[in-house]
Every structure is written in structure tokens, then in C-alpha cells.
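Researcher: I'd like a candidate sequence for this fold, 121 residues long. If you have to choose between options at a position, lean toward the conservative one.
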């Protein structure tokens, strides 16, 4: 179908008619399908509500819960970062340099001592 000879108003009118016809045919197809599904359900001794309820409850059982943003997927672990800064008196206590500073680091910096002095050599 060649539409090039049509003017803009003619194309807009054709578009409006097409929209109406598409909507009409979609509704007719939906009604026909619904009748077929109801008939199939009735042949099996079920109602359409029984089928819909079963579908939604089984979907709820098989759908995994959604994760919140910023959380790791189940079964995955974040790799631990190595300790970069160590307590001046107890080398077993350390800090990676990420996240909130521990109190001993805050105290160290409050004494105007460089953070680099806490790095393990």
C-alpha cells in the first residue's frame, strides 16, 4: 500500500481509523480467547477464577524474592580487603582504610601523627 500520494490530513485521518480498527479487533480477539479459556476450564470442571488463583499462587511460590539495592546476591561473598593500617600498640588490630575510621585511628590523627606511620612496612 503506497501512502506517499496522501496528504498529511489524509494520513492523520487514516491513522485515526487504523487506531479504532486495531482497538476493535484486539477487543474481539480478547473476548474470543476468554470464551475459549472459560470453555476449556468448564470442560475440566474448573472456573476461570480457579485457574487464575492457581497461577498467581504457584507463581508466588516459584518467584524468588527481590533483593534490595546494594545487597549482594545470595551465595556471593564480598572479598575481604586486606588490612592496610595497624594499631601502634597491638598489630593484631587493623583497618582496611575503607569505611568508618576506628577510634584508635581518630585518636592517632588527633595527635597530628601521619596516617602513613600506621601502614605496615
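Model: Candidate sequence:
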Amino acid at each position: 500500500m503506497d501512502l506517499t500520494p496522501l496528504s498529511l490530513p489524509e494520513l492523520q485521518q487514516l491513522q485515526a481509523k487504523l487506531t479504532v480498527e486495531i482497538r476493535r479487533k484486539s477487543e474481539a480477539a480478547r473476548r474470543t480467547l476468554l470464551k475459549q479459556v472459560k470453555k476449556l476450564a468448564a470442560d475440566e470442571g474448573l472456573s476461570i477464577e480457579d485457574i487464575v488463583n492457581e497461577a498467581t499462587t504457584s507463581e508466588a511460590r516459584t518467584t524468588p524474592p527481590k533483593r534490595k539495592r546494594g545487597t549482594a546476591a545470595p551465595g556471593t561473598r564480598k572479598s575481604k580487603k586486606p588490612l592496610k593500617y595497624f594499631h601502634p600498640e597491638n598489630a593484631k588490630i587493623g583497618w582496611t582504610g575503607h569505611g568508618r575510621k576506628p577510634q584508635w585511628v581518630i585518636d592517632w590523627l588527633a595527635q597530628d601523627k601521619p596516617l602513613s606511620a600506621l601502614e605496615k612496612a
